[in-house]
Design a protein that fits this description.
Layout (H helix, E strand, L loop, with lengths): L1 H24 L3 H4 L16 E2 L1 H15 L13 E6 L7 E4 L5 E2 L8 E2 L5 H14 L8 E7 L5 E5 L5 E3 L5 E2 H7 L10 E6 L1 H4 L6 H4 L8 E6 H6 L8 E2 L4 E4 L4 E6 L5 E4 L7 E2 H7 L12 E6 L6 E6 L1 H5 L7 E2 L4 E4 L11 H9 L4 E4 L5
Parallel strand pairs: 7-13, 14-20, 15-21
Antiparallel strand pairs: 1-21, 2-3, 2-6, 4-5, 7-8, 9-12, 10-11, 10-13, 14-15, 16-19, 17-18, 17-20
Helix pairs in contact: 3-5
C-alpha cells in the first residue's frame, strides 16, 4: 500500500512536466510536419510616400537652413578687375578674366587662376607671385571688381519654373532648386549638375599653370534627391559655380484608380524603374472589400497608334501568387473596378475624366519599391 502511494506520488511531477511541455509547444507533432504554405504578400503598407508639395516644402526649408551666408563676391569668367600695385604703375591695370577663369599680368611668367577667388584672395595671390618672381620686394596689391559678367547658373528639366539664376555669391544646390520653385510632379529621383571642365579644373594643373590651352570636357555630378534632402551632408548640397547647368530628369507616373484605399499617381524614381501590378497595388494601400479583383485592367497608350489599349489582369490571382505579376510602364493606369458601383471604371473615357479632375500624386522615396 505504501509502495503504491509512493509510485502515485512519483508520477505527479512527470505528469506536470508533460503538461507544461504540451502547453509550451502548443502544436501537435502531426501539425508541425505539414508543409507550410506561402502567405500572400501584404498590400496595405506603402513606405516612404510623400506628395510633391511636401517635397518642395522640405527643399525650401533646407535651402534656408543651409544657405551660405552672404560674403565676398567670387570672381568669375568675364569679370573686369582693377589691379593696383602700390608705387609700381607699370604693373597696375584693368584686366578682364578670360572664359577659362585666368588673368595674365606683365612680367609674371604664368597665368593666374582668378575664378572662384574673392578679390582679397586674389590680391594676396598676386602679391605672393610678385615677390616670388623677384619683381617687388614688399608688394602692396589691391584688387577690385569693376564689372561682373560671370556666367549664370541654368536650371532646367522637371522643376516648377526653369530659370537662369544670377549668382552674385556662393550658392548651393538646394538654394537654386528652391529659387526654381522646387521640383515638378513628374521629377525623377536624381539631380544632374553639369560643369564646364575648365571651371572645374584645379589651379596649378596643365601647361603654364593651367592656362587653359586645352579645353577640358565638361563633367557631370549625379546627386540622389533623397540623399540631398535627408542626410544634410554637404557632399550632396554642393556649392555651384557660374556656368553650371542644373537638370532634373523627368520620370514616369503610375496611376492606380478605382476600388483601392489610396487612389492616385505614384512617381517613379526613373523611367527605367520596374513597377509591377502588385507593387503598385501595395503603394495604393491595397484593394477595398468591394473590389472586383478578377476584372482589373491596365490602360496603356499604344506607341504606334496613339490609342488607349486595355490589358485585362486578374489581381486576385496575382495577390495569391497564382498569376503573372505584370510589369507596368510609365503613364500606365491600373483600374480596379468596384462591385458596389454601377460605374464602368474600365471605360477609358471615365478613367481619363477621373484623372483630369485631379488625383493625388505621391513621390516614392529611395528603396520604396
Amino acid at each position: 500500500m505504501l509502495s503504491e502511494r509512493v509510485s502515485s506520488f512519483g508520477m505527479r511531477p512527470c505528469l506536470a512536466v508533460l503538461t507544461l511541455l504540451v502547453l509550451f509547444l502548443g502544436v501537435p507533432a502531426s501539425r508541425s510536419q505539414q508543409t507550410a504554405q506561402p502567405s500572400p504578400p501584404s498590400t496595405t503598407v506603402a513606405p516612404n510616400l510623400e506628395t510633391p508639395e511636401a517635397t518642395n516644402a522640405r527643399i525650401s526649408q533646407l535651402a534656408q537652413a543651409a544657405a551660405v551666408q552672404p560674403g565676398d563676391y567670387l570672381i568669375g569668367g568675364g569679370d573686369l578687375l582693377d589691379v593696383q600695385v602700390f608705387e609700381v604703375p607699370e604693373l597696375s591695370r584693368e584686366i578682364r578674366v578670360n572664359e577659362s577663369g585666368y588673368i595674365a599680368l606683365p612680367l609674371i611668367p604664368t597665368k593666374i587662376r582668378a575664378a572662384g577667388l574673392t578679390s582679397f584672395q586674389l590680391q594676396d595671390k598676386v602679391a605672393e607671385l610678385l615677390q616670388t618672381n623677384g619683381l617687388v620686394s614688399s608688394p602692396q596689391v589691391t584688387v577690385s571688381v569693376k564689372e561682373q559678367h560671370s556666367q549664370p547658373i541654368t536650371v532646367i528639366g522637371a522643376v516648377k519654373s526653369p530659370m537662369v539664376f544670377e549668382a552674385v555669391r556662393r550658392t548651393t544646390l538646394l538654394e537654386v532648386l528652391s529659387s526654381a520653385g522646387g521640383i515638378a510632379s513628374d521629377a525623377g529621383n536624381v539631380v544632374l549638375v553639369t560643369r564646364n571642365g575648365n571651371a572645374a579644373a584645379t589651379p596649378g594643373s596643365g601647361p603654364n599653370n593651367g592656362g587653359g590651352a586645352d579645353a577640358a570636357p565638361p563633367i557631370t555630378f549625379t546627386i540622389n534627391l533623397e540623399d540631398l534632402l535627408n542626410t544634410g551632408d554637404s557632399r550632396f548640397n554642393i556649392p555651384l559655380e557660374g556656368g553650371d547647368v542644373v537638370s532634373v530628369p523627368r520620370a514616369g507616373i503610375i496611376y492606380v484608380v478605382g476600388a483601392v484605399n489610396r487612389p492616385g499617381g505614384f512617381v517613379m524614381e526613373s523611367d527605367h524603374q520596374e513597377v509591377t501590378t502588385l507593387k503598385a497595388l501595395s503603394l495604393a494601400g491595397g484593394m477595398t472589400s468591394t473590389a472586383r479583383s478578377t476584372q482589373c485592367v491596365i490602360i496603356r497608350t499604344n506607341k504606334d497608334t496613339g490609342q488607349k489599349d486595355q490589358l485585362p489582369v486578374d489581381l486576385k490571382k496575382v495577390v495569391e501568387l497564382k498569376g503573372e505579376d505584370v510589369a507596368l510602364l510609365p503613364n500606365d493606369i491600373l483600374v480596379v473596378p468596384d462591385s458596389a458601383s454601377k460605374r464602368a471604371w474600365h471605360r477609358t473615357g471615365e478613367v481619363m475624366l477621373s484623372l483630369g479632375s485631379g488625383v493625388a500624386l505621391y513621390r516614392l522615396g529611395t528603396g520604396a519599391l
